Amino acid sequence: MSKTLIPGIVLVVTIIAMAGARAPQGPAPGKVTPQQFEQWKKDLNNWGRWGKDDEIGTMNLITPAKRKQAAALVKEGFSVSLASDADTVQAIDNPQPYEHQMLALGSDRIGVAFHGIAHTHLDSLAHINYDGVFYNGYKPDPEQVKSANGHAKNSIHNLKNGIFTRGILIDIPRMKGVQYLEPGTPIYVEDLEAWLKKAGLKIQPGDALFVRAGVWARRNQSGPYLRGRSPGGKDAGLDPSVIPWLKKQDIAILASDHPQYVSPSDLPGAVHDFALVSLGIHLMDNCDLEALSEAAAARKRWEFLLTAAPLPIKGGTGSPLNPIATF
What distance in Å separates the CA atoms of residue 187 and residue 309, rounded to the nearest whole number? Predict the structure, then answer.
């Protein structure tokens, strides 16, 4: 497998490990304590940065100039989907599969509970809260949310006009010469920066950062397995210690082939939840990055135009999604 990397990329991180092979991890940074994590909520948050009424967080960094820069990345017009197929088969890692029913010869219906570890989707800033408080201090009455059938602020409807920006793939498994990272493997700042240095890349404000851990490569090889925050669940992913680094990068979107965080962890879901609530970063969960990894490696190009259009659900906490990378 080629390890040659190229500068100028939309950041997507790939973590892969050959069957039976373990990527060298090096010394782990200092463990993040619950007390330190709580302090970061105060010191590192983006609340008020774009005004007290802001509902889109770091999406503010995708400016008209940023979109023009992203459009200029298209050189050959080759596109690849970053979504997994709608999975209708129940499994240990897909407890709520897509529902697909043919109603007539030319008509059908679909239904899905899209949050979780199975389906490619976009999380809105109305998805996760700390003690009932969402990004930028939005604190709704739960009964009002239920009666209104949606949130008054921070919903996915704010992204109705779509996403159009520079994407970067960070492919950790490819860097380490493995197919996928073993479940439970943490990704540290040192790993991210090693990829960027080798690729000659620099993250810019408003980028969409994709971190590949090789989840779907492992699943394709070994079958469904228990992942996520469930007892016994394991995922390779970002260690909580990367949070200050993420704050500094000013990315607009964080994406991966799972919900971003390492599991098990003493701070379950830390990066995922902190990104949404404290930093105001929209998340793309469960992207299938295998085709992107191959396409990027074949071209020795790790940046691309990212486009995506969530469903305009008023009050919604997110949306199923089919992100597209175009080279």
Answer: 29
